[in-house]
């Protein structure tokens, strides 16, 4: 009876482990599928306070951006007004040029771009603050057009998935590995009448 109970518990644990692993895989795949036109870095950076001459915004994307007449990058001013920038698309690099900023405050960059890798449109936004006394932004190098800033190593989701798989394999091996109690012990043989035989 105890053996059946242990087997049932082991089965439930293994089944739950498999379900958790499948859910993790689906979450990672779904996250990757939704990452259309993922921005890797920008100048100004999201949340950054910049000053000096700021007449453009530069963004580098993980995948190349397809040139298209409907691509757009808009700049929203502190008073709520919004205007389209003069956009330039060069591989992974997108630039939106506008008149030099003079009014301090929080600005919002809104972009809608066509991802060349899957042909889907993506719309995102980020904000930065302009303060004339602050340091100017560090503009992206020309090499950003080739995707130099994209991460070449393993993503966090990939690492997490690898850890989950390793843990699942270890637990499965621990649950189903045949174990014998006292395998190294030699039990004395009992005689026909219950006494120990020599």
Please explain how this structure is put together.
With 198 residues, this protein is α+β, with helices and mostly antiparallel strands. The chain folds into two domains: 2-32 and 155-175; 43-140, Immunoglobulin-like, CATH 2.60.40.1220. Helices cover 27% and strands 26% of the residues. The chain contains two helices and nine strands; from the N terminus they run αβββββββββα. The protein has helices spanning 2-34, 156-176, and strands at 39-43, 49-50, 56-61, 72-76, 82-84, 86-90, 93-97, 105-114, 121-130. It has a five-stranded mixed sheet with strand order 2-9-8-4-5, with no helix packed on it. It is elongated and about 80 Å long. The protein starts with a helix and ends in a 22-residue tail after the last helix. Residues 28-35 and 149-154 have low confidence and may be disordered.
Reported for the largest beta sheet, the result is: 5 strands, mixed
Query: Structural class of the secondary structure composition?
Result: alpha+beta
**How many angstroms does the end-to-end distance come to?**
34 Å
Rounded radius of gyration (Å):
30 Å
**Number of beta strands:** 9
What's the helix count? 2
Summarize the structure in short.
With 198 residues, the chain is an alpha+beta fold. The protein is 27% helix and 26% strand.
What's the helix and strand layout?
Blueprint: H1 2-34, E1 39-43, E2 49-50, E3 56-61, E4 72-76, E5 82-84, E6 86-90, E7 93-97, E8 105-114, E9 121-130, H2 156-176
Parallel strand pairs: 2-9
Antiparallel strand pairs: 1-3, 3-7, 4-5, 4-8, 6-7, 8-9
Helix pairs in contact: 1-2
């Amino acid at each position: 009876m105890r053996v059946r109970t242990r087997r049932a518990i082991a089965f439930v644990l293994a089944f739950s482990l498999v379900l958790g692993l499948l859910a993790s895989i689906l979450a990672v795949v779904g996250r990757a599928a939704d990452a259309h036109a993922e921005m890797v870095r920008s100048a100004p950076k999201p949340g950054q306070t910049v000053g000096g001459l700021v007449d453009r915004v530069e963004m580098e994307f993980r995948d190349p951006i397809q040139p298209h007449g409907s691509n757009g990058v808009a700049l929203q001013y502190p008073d709520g007004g919004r205007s389209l920038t003069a956009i330039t698309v060069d591989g992974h690099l997108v630039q939106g040029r506008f008149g030099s900023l003079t009014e301090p405050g929080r600005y919002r960059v809104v972009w809608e771009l066509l991802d060349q890798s899957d042909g889907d449109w993506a719309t995102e936004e980020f904000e930065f603050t302009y303060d004339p006394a602050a340091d100017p932004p560090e503009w992206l190098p020309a090499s950003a057009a080739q995707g130099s800033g994209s991460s070449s190593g393993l993503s966090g989701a990939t690492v997490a998935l690898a850890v989950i798989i390793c843990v699942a394999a270890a637990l499965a091996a621990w649950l189903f590995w045949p174990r014998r109690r006292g395998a190294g012990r030699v039990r004395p043989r009992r005689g026909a009448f219950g006494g120990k035989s020599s």
